[in-house]
Protein: Glutaredoxin-like protein, YruB-family
Organism: Berkelbacteria bacterium GW2011_GWE1_39_12
Amino acid sequence: MQIKVYSTPTCPYCVQAKQYFKSRNIDFEDIDVSLDHEKAHEMIDLSGQMGVPVIKIDNDVIVGFDKAKIDQHLK
């Protein structure tokens, strides 16, 4: 399972999402879109959104920190 979290350092929901994955000992790639403009465009192409967090679990995209959707994709 491959997980990417597109985030910014000042986003509280991004911090919550990353803490949630860490609390469950789930590896993820943290992508800071405030520093990487290429990855920011990748995030927008994936989600159609400019807001963070955008979480990609394999080929599924979740916009925002939606624990229920995340858990559904982790099963």
About this structure: The beta strands are 3-7, 29-32, 54-57, 60-63. The domain at 3-74 is CATH 3.40.30.10 (Glutaredoxin).
